[in-house]
Design a protein that fits this description.
The complex is a heterodimer of chains A (475) and B (499).
Chain A (H helix, E strand, L loop, with lengths): L2 H4 L3 H19 L8 H16 L6 E3 L4 E3 L1 H25 L8 H19 L4 H19 L6 H32 L4 H7 L5 H18 L6 H9 L2 H25 L5 H24 L4 H21 L3 H32 L10 H4 L1 H15 L5 H15 L3 H26 L14 H19 L1 H11 L4
Chain B lengths: L2 H18 L3 H31 L7 E9 L4 E7 L1 H20 L7 H20 L3 H12 L1 H9 L4 H28 L12 H5 L5 H18 L8 H8 L2 H26 L1 H28 L3 H22 L2 H32 L10 H4 L1 H14 L6 H15 L3 H29 L16 H19 L1 H20 L3
Antiparallel strand pairs in B: 1-2
Helix pairs in contact in B: 1-2, 1-4, 2-3, 2-4, 3-4, 3-11, 3-14, 3-19, 4-5, 4-6, 4-11, 5-7, 6-7, 7-9, 7-10, 9-11, 9-12, 10-11, 10-13, 11-12, 11-13, 11-14, 12-13, 12-18, 13-14, 13-17, 13-18, 14-16, 14-17, 14-19, 14-20, 16-18, 16-19, 17-19
Classes of the chains: A mainly alpha (475), B mainly alpha (499).
């Protein structure tokens, strides 16, 4: 293997290098200057994001275990952008005294998760896929328990690791069945011989899907979501709801359309049922929530149901709509979480009732929140409308008009609970609204990026066309 | 640049302008300037359009322009107008212009108020100029959403409930529309290579009748929700009653017309076979709207509720006429949209002004207003007379045309429906005259009423413009109806094959 070949793994190598630099930097930074790790790590990651867009070698390594193409690189870039925003928004939280002693751990763990996701996306066989998946999960459990002095945080960590272990077990069971029937773990070889003829094949597919459903928190495998989201630090919740979910969705799409291409009608049925369940249950539960983190947890479950609509259409149209939607979802959801974070830090309040009358004291934050929610609900002219519309187009492309109808009606339900929060901020009266406060620079920057993203990505068709161009290479 | 695009750009610039202002005064002045320009632009468009037609230009859509937006999905920013769209744009110009002056005295968060109001208007303008279903739908939703904030923040009564109900019902309607649009998209090209959202292109394609049978009702009901189709009209009385003056004006005057216009231009135009087949069912519903709305208005005490139910009745008539599927009835439908738009805007403006003085909207708590505020009262009488269809005002022209068109349809069923619908004219007269009698005539009920001033300059301007428009349409309907008739030809040709 030459050095040139090695560069195919550029995205992962750079991330490993950053993690190492942060780790080493910690040794040289004195106790008092720990803060300086934050800008170093963020700058390095920013460079990584830019670097990701440079033209790269494509091809495969290790006899097909690791594959990368323009599509994989695009997915990694999308995730990178999201992680960068999360880093920026986490700065204020990291600077809290309780967290100062483990700043570098935060960066290293998140970056290793991203490395895991990258390997998962680039996997060419089930083994690499599984290793990537585990690497993407275990550090997150540690991060969920980051504020270990808080019971809630520790509880979230345990819940996450237990449900992740269970889902991995289910997934592995499915993979072992597939291996048993086909005699191979390579995607190409499995895909060539996989049929719906034997029930064990079908069972393998179902177990595999169930394992992935845990990761994406699809109904009925969503039960861990709300508790973990509520207990974990907001920065980690953001990561779970956006990046983890996005990566798992990407991989699910790739595997369903390559390995299980031959049984497409079968998994389409499965996806339709799960999608309806996920949207409906996510929405109905979201209505009842008072805590905004739980609220966003259920709303993100519902959003995952919408994403499945794009997966249904196994063509480039579906792939484009999924990536495009995830990109928009990153900006919208991170904007909403960003506001929740800063409000929780400055006032300690995270219930919807506490937000009553917030527009009169903090108009900019309220507007940001409203835009984010409109984007999540799919209201024009913000980007969410375009994202949802194209997901629906993808599903309609396969003739699922009734499913689209159910989905749009669900979007209306989701609008209801988003409007409840808007109502709290803009309409409800409150004697003691959240007092005015000034946000720090990093929060402002993070929110600004999100708001620009929410406005621009929708109207700017070049973004969509760029994604589409790459997705057209999909087999 | 295309003059039509200006109709979206000017409101957008106005919104940006309001953002620059510091206080209430600045906000309303900027809005007034922006919307005055818009009104002038509207007038220019109307005269330009008439000039082009007189010069013998026969294109279906003038000022047609199409820019690629999302290339791979073949989504375009396609705009163009025919006589119907021009008429609707002119209507919107008038109503947003008067709406700004009717809300001259909004004090609470007035910058936000004007911004939301103008964003709403932007959506409406965009909707009427669009010929691409995607852009059309986008603008449609842009028009619906500011409503929530406008009613929720500046409304009165059970405003939060009304705002939520209105928003959710309209969004539910747009869910049906969205599915219908996707169906149109994927059936727009039988070969399956080059789908399009362009109305002109889709109109050339024969969509299979089996598909139409399922999705025409969706499209029609989806737009019908906004057009207050029975039994999906329930958002309308609550919404209108809770909304602030200008919002009621815009909503009843223009936004409900989006429903009628959409049902006409999208549902019936693109799926005429199913429309013809299923017209009987929807005729029952629309007839119910017409009569039920009128009866509803009789028993209400709140002025706004009376007018809201009357809107249900009048807008029901629009959908009723659209379903009659002949040229005269179509003509009447469009005339009715214009006529009702102006008239109801005048009503709501006056109700707002009266409420601002008496602080009640209950008819029975007021009386003898004619002696105290004669200008407003006379305007109210004019609006009322237009509403009950007195010759010389716009309402007469519209309703007359609709019923003439409806009676042209052979068949006992449509005739029976028409007769029932015609009876609404009598009921309308009952509730209009009842209100006029109690509210304006008779002895003065409250002594403190004497202190009221009559209409201020901005109120006079607002009502004056609207009365002028009512009289204009009533006295000289010919140019308007000519403008509409020309533009109906493509549709009439399209359906002539079916009937």
């Amino acid at each position: 293997m030459t050095f040139q070949d090695f560069l195919i793994m550029r995205h992962e190598i750079v991330l490993v290098a950053i993690a190492m630099i942060v780790l080493i930097a910690e040794i040289f930074v004195s106790e008092k200057n720990r803060k300086s790790i934050i800008p170093i790590a963020i700058t390095l990651f920013f460079i990584n994001v830019l670097f990701g867009f440079c033209p790269a070698h494509t091809g495969q390594l290790f006899g097909g275990m690791y594959k990368t193409g323009d599509l994989q690189i695009l997915m990694k870039n999308v995730l990178n952008i999201g992680v960068l925003i999360i880093f920026i928004q986490a700065v204020k939280w990291l600077k809290e005294p309780d967290n100062m002693d483990k700043v570098s751990e935060y960066f290293i763990l998140i970056i290793s998760t991203v490395i895991g996701m990258n390997f998962m996306i680039s996997a060419g066989d089930f083994l690499m896929f599984y290793i990537g998946l585990e690497l993407a999960t275990i550090p997150i459990a540690a991060l969920a328990a980051y504020e270990r002095y808080k019971n809630r945080s520790a509880e979230a960590g345990i819940k996450l690791i237990l449900s992740a272990a269970l889902s991995s077990g289910v997934l592995l069971y499915g993979i072992s069945m597939i291996y048993g029937m086909t005699g191979s773990i390579y995607f190409d070889e499995v895909g060539a011989v996989f049929t719906a003829s034997s029930s064990l094949h079908v069972l393998g597919l179902i177990f595999f899907f169930a394992g992935m459903a845990f990761k994406i928190s699809l109904v009925p495998f969503h039960l861990w979501t709300a508790d973990v989201y509520e207990g974990a630090p907001v920065s980690i919740t953001m990561f779970l709801s956006v990046i983890s979910k996005g990566a798992a969705v990407f991989v699910l799409f790739i595997i369903l359309t390559t390995v299980f291409k031959a049984v497409m009608p079968m998994w389409q049925d499965l996806v339709v049922v799960i999608s309806i369940l996920t949207m409906t249950i996510g929405n109905l539960f979201a209505i009842r929530q008072q805590n905004l983190k739980r609220f966003l947890a259920f709303s993100s479950i519902a959003q995952a149901g919408f994403i499945l609509l794009g997966i249904l259409d196994g063509t480039s149209l579906g792939m484009t709509s999924v990536i495009y939607f995830v990109l928009i979802y990153i900006f919208s959801n991170l904007a909403a979480f960003g506001v929740v974070t800063i409000v929780a830090q400055m006032s300690g309040k995270e219930n919807i009732n506490d937000y009553n009358g917030m527009y009169h004291t903090n108009p900019k934050l309220s507007l940001t929140m409203m835009l984010a929610f409109f984007s999540l609900a799919g209201i024009p002219p913000v980007a969410g409308f375009f994202g949802k519309f194209f997901l629906f187009t993808a599903a309609a492309h396969q003739g699922y008009y009734m499913l689209v109808l159910i989905a749009v009606l669900n979007a209306t339900i989701s609008l209801y609970y988003y409007l409840i929060v808007v109502k709290a901020m803009f309409i409800n009266k409150n004697e003691t609204p959240i007092a005015y406060f000034k946000s720090d620079f990093s929060t402002k920057l993070g929110l600004l990026i999100c708001v620009i993203g929410i406005f621009v990505i929708g109207f700017a068709s070049p973004v969509y066309e760029y994604i589409n161009q790459i997705c057209l290479t999909l087999p | 640049m295309n003059i039509l695009t200006l109709f979206v750009i000017i409101p957008t610039l106005t919104v940006l302008g309001i953002l620059m202002t510091k206080d209430n005064k600045g906000a309303r002045v900027v809005s007034a300037i922006g919307m005055s320009i818009q009104l002038i632009l509207g007038a220019v468009l109307v005269f330009w359009y008439l000039g082009q037609r007189n010069a013998g230009v026969t294109d279906t859509f003038l000022l047609y322009e199409s820019h690629t937006w999302f290339e791979s999905l073949n989504i375009h920013y396609a705009i163009g107008v025919d006589g119907i769209a021009v008429a609707m744009i002119a209507l919107t110009c008038i109503i947003i212009f008067t709406g700004i002056f009717a809300s001259w005295e909004v004090e609470f968060l007035s910058r936000e108020f004007f911004i939301s109001l103008i964003i709403l208007a932007t959506g409406v303008f965009g909707f009427f100029i669009s010929l691409d279903l995607f852009t059309m739908f986008l603008f449609y939703e842009v028009a619906v959403i500011p409503m929530y904030l406008l009613i929720g923040i500046w409304g009165s009564g059970p405003k939060e409930y009304s705002a939520m109900k209105l928003t959710l019902m309209l969004m539910g309607g747009s869910a049906l529309i969205l599915v219908g649009l996707l169906v149109l998209y994927f059936f727009s090209d039988p070969i399956g290579t080059n789908y399009t959202f362009n109305i002109i292109e889709i109109a050339k394609v024969q969509i299979p009748i089996e598909v139409q049978r399922i999705f025409f009702p969706m499209l029609f009901v989806g737009f019908g929700v906004l057009g207050a189709l029975f039994p999906f009209h329930t958002w309308s009385p609550d919404g209108h009653a809770s909304a602030p003056t200008a919002v009621s004006m815009l909503h009843a005057g223009v936004l409900m017309k989006l429903g009628g216009y959409g049902a006409f231009r999208v549902a019936v135009y693109l799926m005429p076979e199913a429309a013809h087949e299923q017209a009987w069912f929807f005729l029952i519903l629309t007839t119910a709207s017409v009569v039920y709305g009128a009866f509803g208005a009789i028993v209400q005490k709140d002025l706004k509720y009376i007018n809201a139910y009357s809107s249900v009745s009048h807008c029901g008539l629009v959908l009723f006429a659209v379903l009659m599927m002949n040229e005269t009835a179509f003509n009447g439908a469009i005339l009715q949209m214009i006529s009702h738009g102006i008239m109801t805007a005048l009503f709501f403006a006056l109700i707002g002004m009266i409420y601002g003085r008496t602080h009640t909207r209950n008819v029975y708590e007021m009386g003898g207003l004619m002696k105290i505020i004669p200008v407003l009262s006379v305007s109210y009488v004019i609006a009322g007379l237009a509403s009950l269809g007195l010759p010389g005002f716009s309402g007469f022209v519209a309703e007359m045309t609709i019923f003439v068109g409806a009676f042209q349809n052979p068949g006992t069923f449509t005739t029976v429906c028409t007769i029932i619908a015609v009876s609404s004219i009598v009921i309308t007269a009952v509730y209009v005259l009842r209100v006029v009698g109690i509210l304006l005539l008779g002895p003065i009920k409250e002594h403190q009423y004497h202190g009221f001033g009559d209409a201020k300059w901005f109120e006079r301007l607002s009502t004056g413009v609207l009365i002028l428009a009512i009289a204009g349409v009533g006295i000289a309907p010919l140019w308007l109806s000519n403008m509409i008739t020309d533009s109906l030809q493509p549709l009439v040709e399209k359906i002539s094959g079916i009937l």
